[in-house]
Amino acid sequence: MFCYWGDDVRAGFGLVKPDGVKKTTSGVFFCSPKSRIKQLAPGKGLVGFVRGEGNVSVIRVPPAGGLQCGRLKNLELKDKIRLMSCRETQAVLLTYAGRSFWMDTHNHCSPLKELSGRNVIQVVCGDQHCMALTQDGQFFTWGQNSSGQLGLGKGEPSFLSPQPLKSLCGIPLAQICAGGDHSFALSMSGSVFGWGRNSAGQLGLGDTEDRYIPACVNSLTFKKTVFISCGEEHTATLSKGGTVFTFGSGRYGQLGHNSFRDEHHPRVVGELWGSMVSQITCGRHHTLALVESSKTIYSFGCGEQGQLGSGQRTNQCVPVPVHLPPETNHDKSVEQIVAGGNLSFVLCSQQEADNSSVHPELNRGRGILTLGDGMIDRWISECDSNQWKTIKKEMKTVFSSAACLNGSFIKKSCDVHYQTSTSFSGLDMESVRAAFERLAQKEKVLLEIEKIVEKDLLPSLGCTALGAEAMRVYLILPEFLRVLNKDLHETKLTAELASAILKLNPSMLQVLENYWSELPDDFFKPLVELFRKPSAYFISKMTFDQRIKCYFKFLKKYVRVLQMLYKAFCKGQREMASRDFIIHEVNDLFELLEAVNQELFYMGAQWFVVLKEKRQLEHILQILNSSPCIFNLEAKCNLLKLRKVREVFRLELRRTALLKDCFSQLRAADESALKGCLQVVYSEKHEKTDVNKKDFFYNVFRTLLDPESRMFVYNDTKTLIWFPAEPSLQEENYFLFGCLCGLAFYNNSVVNLPFPLALFKKLADVQPSLEDLTEFSPVLGRSLQYILDYSDEDVECMEMSFTIIWEDKEVELDPNEPGKVVTSSNKKEFVDAYVDYTMNKLVERVFEEFRRGFYKVCDQDLVESFQPEELRGVMVGTEEYDWSTLKKNARYEGLFHSRHPMIVSFWEVFDELSDKDKKAFLLFLTGFDRVPVLGMDQVRMRVCCLYMSTEDHLPEALTCHSLLQLPMYQTKETLRAKLLEALHHKRGFWEE
């Protein structure tokens, strides 16, 4: 049965004789055409009928109040038509084979040449524009672009021929829809994109500005949208649970919100709430909704031409039931409702309606091709049969299209895929892995896929896609590369994947990073290895054969992606460790560079050849420098030593005014000067003497960190310091102290900084934790841990609140809710707030001054390449004293050798020293009393004879070279006495 109402038209549209058309008292016409109508396609001035056998008839419909409509005409087409969509006076037709035709105003049909060879699955038309979706997920638009309805960008002209809409590339689309001058697309995971005219808010974006490229309607995210329909200036969406949202123009009541106001955001139609709507459709200024369970059609909006079917020609702003013929309540079920122009249609059938909430085939048309279990089974079982040509075609469709792959493997159970967001991919990674492992069973299939991915898919990636769903392909492809089981450095696919990732715009890169951070270790670790292994291979090759320049471009891409993966790794708790990113072959580059530098020093006429080799090595290291995650601690320290220093930063100081002169010159220095190589000069009484930097740092920090300086607060055990909340000194002092710490770091000087790890975390932009607070204040830390460990009942009985007393002042840890009570559900929130207050907010002003000074000297990227523990080790050193290593690595010069009596006596005396005196000797020799973070191996002690000396002379040391100068003492006892006197003598450079 065919029902219609609205504009006066030819009786039955010419589908039946006039006497075969009946009319209800409410103005609904109904008839029973001889051939089944499969689809209705109403436009502003045109209505098309697609018959069950694939034939098409069209009839011209004049504007409201115009002349009687024309005659029904059959289109002369050999192809059977599956789908039709009408513009104002023209139409696009789609065959079962996916061919598309254009019908002009004279009903002449011709193929759309630009879409020939493409399997089109959906076509839709607005008033003056058209859109088409192909089986491989490509989206085309053409027609008028006056309001941006083509989505091609601002300033783009109108096009008569279909143009690819690149901004939605990779999004697996389920439906496309067009209104008057606006357009919509719906993804398989329920994301809604709108663009074009927005004069009444019909895009649902909260404003009335036109959009020239697709914009995601964030208000509909997570609403499980399954269908969209557009009117001339309004839009309706249907959620899977049967909820209807409308937005845009409400001038005629077409939004159903019991008002005639426009809505700029999607709003639920309250009158239909809970009714389980199964279909929606929008006419020019009216809307229809079907509740299938009760066979009730509701209409609202403009009724001036009777298009509401209520028997009245008035506008309605709330849904009212349509009075259908009594016959529809017996053995008929409503198959399809369609609104277009000022007309409404209903198709009824004899079949019983199924129990699904929507009719996807009727409402959406066919979907894009996706990879499923049945398809994989068929490929594997029939690849050796005469079906191979068909299988290859399917493979090409799926694996040449990011959209098709992104629509595969989604988590449909419990509608999980509708939760897809910028932090959740909606992918079932276990299904991805299982699918590729099954495909790998047939090498013929796998190799064919490899060719398609390399030739078609990878070159198409990296565009500026708009939606998060486009990022799924970057999780899927690594699983395919894993099962290829090839040496990773021999395939181009990894390099092409890296290139595509690096082409992504920053917002999409952030989405991909979020997806990576949520990957389980079983998937994340192979992803890291995908880029780490070839990187190690290339570095190894380039170390020993620097002529292989072709590796440069690959290596640069791989290590950049590794650094992105490392950033994602740092976001979550994982069983794998940061060492899984390290490429130990980098250390070979530093060793080779050191050898080249030594060779360059002694080279003669061939120096330019060695210099070229040196620059090549430095270039490789410069490439790797952007990816510190691949460096172990030794490599990072070597990198710190290799930083380019063009100038010398000279501090000229007086012994009697050390801090005053130092601060004065730091205050006046510009940022570029501070980054130079530090030179310290003592100047007094018309003489200047170079001072070893280590001696300078040792004495200046000893002065600053003295408790009498009152710069810092000490913990209960007087072993650690922290910043004061209310400093007694000027805040500038902390800025200058930060500059000094930066200078020490940049100049490879170990200094005494008895701070907890929290300081180095904050410098590395890592938030301090309860463990860090416990390190500084064990009593307070254990108390907070006690709260966390309490059972729920105990916490409820503690009668604590987020209001704490700190230094006799009340502090609200949650200013938004003063007096908030600590409960079992928020006890962790309380502890986190407590830690944040004590380690961050309380000292924020002072610490920021210190941080500003530190980063005035140091490059933040270089500092943040170190882990907090590594940063502390580099700046402060360790207390892992290994005196046997110091002795083993000692080198002797001049008269001395390892078996010389003086050397034998020296080590015997040294072994008998107390631990305190041994540390004093390390300070005497090197200028610092702690071990470098890389161990005692880094202290290369040299020993030579102090010529022209007597037994009255004390041993001397050049700390900048770790050189010990020993007089030739006659006895071991004299050696012991003079060594101890030297270690404890107060004639030190700063204490004369």
From TrEMBL:
Q: Where are the RCC repeats?
A: 137-189, 190-241, 242-293, 295-350
Matching InterPro entries: HECT_dom, Hect_E3_ubiquitin_ligase, RCC1-like_dom, RCC1/BLIP-II, Reg_chr_condens, Ub-ligase/GTPase-reg
- Active-site residues? C960 (glycyl thioester intermediate)
Which molecular function term from Gene Ontology is one that the record holds?
Answer: ubiquitin protein ligase activity
Q: Looking at the record's lineage, which domain of life comes first? A: Eukaryota
Q: Which UniProt keywords apply?
A: Repeat, Transferase, Ubl conjugation pathway
Pfam families tied to this protein: HECT, WD40_RLD
The answer to whether keyword Oxidoreductase applies is no
Alphabetical list of Gene3D superfamilies matching this protein: Hect, E3 ligase catalytic domain (3.30.2410.10), Hect, E3 ligase catalytic domains (3.90.1750.10), Regulator of chromosome condensation 1/beta-lactamase-inhibitor protein II (2.130.10.30)
One cellular-component annotation, GO: cytoplasm
User: In this protein, which residues make up the domain named HECT?
Assistant: 694-992
Which GO terms of type biological process are on file? protein ubiquitination; ubiquitin-dependent protein catabolic process
- Matches recorded under PANTHER family: E3 UBIQUITIN-PROTEIN LIGASE HERC4-LIKE ISOFORM X1-RELATED (PTHR45622:SF73), UBIQUITIN-PROTEIN LIGASE E3A-RELATED (PTHR45622)
Q: What is this protein called?
A: HECT domain-containing protein
